[in-house]
Amino acid sequence: MTMLSTFPKEAQGIRKGCDANGGVEVRGWGVKGAETIKGRPVAIVSTFADAFASLRSRQGVRFDLVILAVPAPHHEHYLQGLAPYLRKSAATDARETPKHWNSSADSPDVIPTILCAAVAQGGFDMAARQALSDTGMEKSFNFGEVIVAGLETLPWACRVARQGAVCEILGTKDSVDAAVAVFPFPENLINYAKSALQTLQIAVGPTPKLKLASGFLGVALSNVNAFWHPTLMWHKWCDWDGGRFPARRRCFTKTHPMT
To answer: Most buried residue among 6, 71, 94, 235 by CB atoms closer than 10 A?
Structure first.
């Protein structure tokens, strides 16, 4: 596993703490929160180029899973940086195993790269599709595919006790919904959904249990901690006529006097 933070000082602090402690110690792991596990990333870096420099196969860049564990307002920044590498990974898939990513098997052994947001708030799937589309990925079938996934909420309540060294899990959820989609060929979701969920479950661990959500819209609308609130947004824009809006306007109708 490679850990990436595009804030150089943060990456440096995590790397320093990890080196001093001989790895990252996670306390409160497991079903009953009684375990302590320890491990360390292969690399802790601050640039996309460094993150993917060593992830090369015979034909080019190839990786299995990318998890964005950052707040939703930072998704766009990371997606724009990740998209070119995701395209390269998909192209590698297409060259090395040109049929596996368009397989009709119920659960193929090899699936496309998974791009997962934890948590998928504020239209993460739309932002991911746009970033991938900007690379020209959907213009050629030979570029392969990317599985876009997102968790409805964080699997754990946790905090950093010592940067890069110790993390404490305060509570583990019983189950978490996960939405899955495929870009640029959404019709192939039926082939990959089961395997994608299994891969995500391996990354999360035995708990919480991941459940396949109805879709990204359900994940976005049901999230209680979303940085955008669907019902408030509707009240703010329900009367908009599609034209240019003034610099200042009332956010709600007369029945909702708040501004």
So the answer is: 94
B/e letters for 107-139, b = 16+ CB within 10 Å, e = fewer, are: ebeebbbbbbbbbbbbbbbebbbebbeebebee
Residue 249 pLDDT class (50, 70, 90 cuts): very low
Which residues does residue 166 pair with via DSSP β-bridges, in sequence order?
25, 162
Which comes out higher in pLDDT, residue 17 or 141? 17
User: If you average pLDDT over residues 178-184, what whole number do you get?
Assistant: 94
Helix (H) or strand (E) holding 243: none
pLDDT digits (tens, 9 = 90+) for 190-226: 999 999 999 999 999 999 999 999 899 888 777 665 5
CA distance 207 to 176: 9
* Both tokens assigned to 214: 């109805």
DSSP conformation letters of 82-120: HHHHHHHHHHHHHHHSTTGGG--SSS-SS-PEEEEESS-
Concatenating the DSSP letter of every residue in 20-35 gives HHTSEEEEEESTTS-E
Cβ–Cβ < 8 Å for 117, 154: no
* Element (DSSP H or E) covering residue 130: helix 124-134
10 Å CB burial of residue 227 (0-12, 13-18, 19+) is exposed
Residue 52 backbone dihedrals phi, psi, to 5 degrees = -110, 5
User: Is beta strand 166-172 parallel, antiparallel or unpaired with respect to 24-29?
Assistant: parallel
All domains of the chain, ordered by start, with CATH?
2-228 (3.40.50.720), 229-259 (no CATH)
Distance CA 142, CA 95 (A): 8
Angle between helix 75-96 and 124-134 (nearest 10) = 60
